[in-house]
Amino acid sequence: MGVELRQLRCLVAILDEGTFTDAAIALDVSQAAVSRTLASLERALGVRLLRRTSREVTPTATGLRVAAHARRVLGEVDTLVQEVTSGLTRLRVGYAWSALGRHTLSFQRRWAERNPATDVQLVRVNSATAGLAEGVCDIAVVRRPLHDDRRFDSAIVGLERRLCALAADDPLARRRSVRLADLSARTLLVDRRTGTTTPELWPPETRPAVEETHDVDDWLAVISTGRSIGVTAESTANQYRRPGVVYRPVRDAEPIPVCLAWWRDDPHPATQAVRELLTELYST
Question: What share of the chain is helix, strand, coil (3-state, %, to 5)?
């Protein structure tokens, strides 16, 4: 016999209310139903959970441990129900590195003005789908195409310049901009899961050496030492200003498309509104 949620709720109600009678009132069932439900839980677990006398009900040591687990389980279930049934009341926007760059604050403010009933939450997830595949966001801002994954649809909402991140004392930092050829003799620090730039940006005969990282903070820390350089979307410079790191435009590199991605078979109801607002912001 498996353990059921109604049994866990019954145990917690008895302990919270103090008596079987009051637990029955709280659960809107009969006292006999409370007794039967508790007995079935004890049979399922093979242990005694409560000591019941004519004057009080007290938990056994095992009952206390089971009750603690029961509260956590019931709390998780309540959270699950809230997430699934929230509908238009919440919108989780995932991103891997830098959200919407200089448009991040404008997006949040304009969304709140136009859609006050739907709360927006930005969620950073360093994965290829920025949290979509992991189920931790409803839509995602990505800067790498998801064309090969048929689970998702996406649309380009804007373009961002490609910038080079350098140590502040690097000789190239004295320039206003750089070219790809200026970087080919350097070591390029990349995040192959979510990064926007790989050695394929350069012609085969001039590709830089590569080191890998897996997080923007680690990426910045290494670059600040002068050991490597990075090439990234303009939004990274807006969101991650760090002492010891400067950003310079790569003037002969193609811009990076900014895409909004969502589940093909189950789009959030606010997806189109987000797409329109982001397109508006990037167009300005």
Answer: 40, 25, 35
pTM of the model: 0.71
Structure tokens at 31: 């006292």
Report the first-to-last Cα separation within the chain, whole angstroms: 62
Give the mean pLDDT of 121-144.
93
Q: How many CB atoms lie within 10 A of CB 100?
A: 24
Cα torsion 140, 144, 149, 154: sign? positive
Q: Are 261 and 140 in contact (CB under 8 A)?
A: yes
Q: Which two tokens stand for residue 229?
A: 């350089």
* CA–CA separation, 227 and 218 (whole Å): 13
Q: Give the DSSP letter string of 176-236.
A: S-B-HHHHTTSEEEE-TTT-S--GGGS-GGGPPEEEE-SSHHHHHHHHHTTS-BEEEEHHH
**Residue 173 pLDDT grade (very low, low, confident, very high; cuts 50, 70, 90):** very high
Specify which residues 262 forms β-bridges with: 139, 153
Alpha-carbon distance of 133 to 167, in angstroms, equals 35
Q: What's the pLDDT band for 272 if we cut at 50, 70, 90?
A: very high
Kindly report, residue by residue over 38-83, the tens digit of the pLDDT. 999 999 999 999 998 767 889 999 999 999 999 999 988 887 777 6
- Picking from 162, 159, 156, 146, the residue whose alpha carbon sits closest to that of residue 103 is 159
Which letter does DSSP use for residue 140 in this model? E
Q: In the numeric block, which tokens belong to residue 249?
A: 């435009």
Average pLDDT over residues 242-257: 95
Going along the chain from its start, the domains and CATH numbers come out as 5-85 (1.10.10.10), 87-159+257-283 (3.40.190.10), 162-254 (3.40.190.10)
Cα–Cα distance, 242 to 23 (Å, whole number)? 57
